[in-house]
Amino acid sequence: MPLRSDWSDDLCPVRRSLDVLGDGWVLLIIRDVLHGRGRFDTLRDNLGISDAVLNRRLRSMVEADLLERVDYSDGGRTRQGYAATVAGAELLPVLQQLAIWGERHTVTPPDGGHMALIHEACGSETTRGEICSACGEPLVPEEMSWDKPWRGRRDRLVAAGELHSPR
């Protein structure tokens, strides 16, 4: 998904990564999919994105192997939603580190509050994106929750390949 330039063949891995991830919608879509919100309508409504833009991003994210299409039942009809691939799920540390950076270096709006990243395996808040700062274990989506005070809930993430949390 090139932005200004095609960096897909560049020797620099940062440029190659930005060639795929450099559009802000990509990380927001991955965030929502890892939260179990991989249905098209749910993504569109939660992100406030147009159908056309979302369609283009989802298509390119499937082509880049960040997402896969998965079937789900909707009132007797089979529909397709999106789940993270292994490559998409491996973006969790990036998303979590962005959230931690945002907590530290941006101003929280008045109706906000501290978003805690909870490692469910040990029950502690982590202050690192890839390895739990409390227990030292690697952080994987299915063992993580994001406590969002402005929503009054804790959202449990889903594993690669899952559309919704089975919990």
TrEMBL record:
Highest taxon, organism lineage: Bacteria
Organism of derivation: Janibacter indicus
Annotated InterPro entries: HTH_HxlR, WH-like_DNA-bd_sf, WH_DNA-bd_sf
GO molecular function, one term: DNA binding
Gene3D superfamilies documented for this protein: Winged helix-like DNA-binding domain superfamily/Winged helix DNA-binding domain
Protein name as annotated: HxlR family transcriptional regulator
Keywords: DNA-binding, Transcription, Transcription regulation
Domain HTH hxlR-type, first and last residues per copy: 12-110
Keyword Amino-acid biosynthesis in record: no
